[in-house]
Structure formats: structure tokens, C-alpha cells
Known about the structure:
Layout: E1 8-16, H1 22-31, E2 44-52, E3 55-63, H2 71-80, E4 83-89, H3 93-97, H4 99-110, E5 117-122, H5 134-143, E6 147-150, H6 157-175, H7 182-203
Parallel strand pairs: 1-3, 1-4, 4-5, 5-6
Antiparallel strand pairs: 2-3
Amino acid sequence: MDSSRKTVPVKLxxxxxxxxxxxxxxxxxxxxxxxxxxxxxxxxxxxxxxVVDQEAVELEILDLPFKESSAAxxxxxxxxxxxxxxxxxxxxxFSFTEIPRLKTFIDKTKHGLGVPTVLVANKTDLEIGREVxxxxxxxxxxxxxxxxxxxxxxxxxxxxxxxxxxLIRLVVDQQRPLPDRRSxxxxxxxxxxxxxxxxxxxxx
Length: 204
Ligand SMILES: Nc1nc2c(ncn2[C@@H]2O[C@H](COP(=O)(O)OP(=O)(O)OP(=O)(O)O)[C@@H](O)[C@H]2O)c(=O)[nH]1
């Protein structure tokens, strides 16, 4: 890693309905351990440093427990954050149907549609109690323009890390000047290859 490069601050907000495993996910990411029950039910900010794609990242993750918090306090947390993990439980349909409302509120507060967001479908170890299919999750993520991960916080730390890292990459990418963004480069590349295919077709 280039030591002259600056550390990138990244602030993530974890949101979702009650009991979806938001705290378990944060604790799993930070400590690598799954801890079944938590005493605290207030908001907590976790801090740690990670290296993502050779970029040093100073991470803050805010875990907001589900409660009837005022729109104003939710709004200020959304303004604070650079990226969002929206968590639902595959065993709790209500937590899934809540997601679009949250995403709309985030987009409205951030005044944009390209807000870095990853949708996390948790508790896949409880397959027998599944109420939301993976296809439904994938479709919602596509409709809301989010990344998507199905995982079990209880079962595997790697999938949790992959979800958080995916979100960090989206945030870091968005902070780059437009021509340096991976997403921008991909869009340009796709547009060029479409154009090339068209012009080849026209030759025939
Ligand atoms: N089986 C299973 N249980 C899980 C998983 N993740 C979390 N849980 C359990 O689900 C319950 C809720 O987890 P929390 O992390 O407290 O959920 P939360 O979303 O932070 O809940 P609020 O603070 O009420 O908003 C706890 O009993 C966890 O042990 C998982 O992947 N599988």
C-alpha cells in the first residue's frame, strides 16, 4: 500500500426493522464474533480501520436500533452517513416490506438517487421460517438500485465482511472525481462496446 496516500473516512448507517440482526451484524464485523443477545438498545457507533483494495479506510458504523425515533433524528443520522446497510430478516416479511420506505426517505434526505446502499437479507440459517425468497430480495435491490447480499450473521463472518466491504467500495468510488470512478468507467465501457457492436452490425 502506498504510505503517502491519505486514510479515507467512511461513515456507514445500519437501518432496518426490529430484531433483524443489525447489532449482531455490526458486532460480528468488528469483533468477528456472533453474540446472541445484547443488553443495549441505544444507538452505538463502532469505529475501526480496514484496508479495502489497498486503500486505508477509517470506518465509523452507526447502529440505530429500531424504534419510533423522530423523523428529525433519523434525518440527521442519514445526513451524517456516506453509505447505508438496509437490513431485513428473511423470516420476517414486515421487515422486508419496510425497506422501500426507508430507501425513499434516504434518497429524499440525500437529494439523490445514487446513494451507496447495500440491501442485506439476514438469517438464512432459519430457512424453515423463510417468508421472503431470494428472488424477491434480488428484485427489490434492483428496483431500489442497491447492492444485495443474503447471509446469516450467525453462521458466517465472511459474508458479513463481504457485505460491508461492498458498501465501502461503493462509498469510496463515489468520492472519487467522476472520470476516476469504477462505476463511471464501467458505464463508459458498456456504452463504447454497445456502439462498437452497432457499427460492426451496420457494416454487414
Ligand atoms: N438465527 C439467527 N439469529 C440471528 C441472526 N442475526 C441476529 N440474530 C438474532 O436476532 C435477534 C435480534 O438481533 P439484534 O442484532 O439485536 O437485532 P436488531 O436489528 O439490532 O434489533 P433492534 O435493536 O431491536 O433494532 C437476536 O436474538 C440475535 O441473536 C442470524 O443470522 N441468525
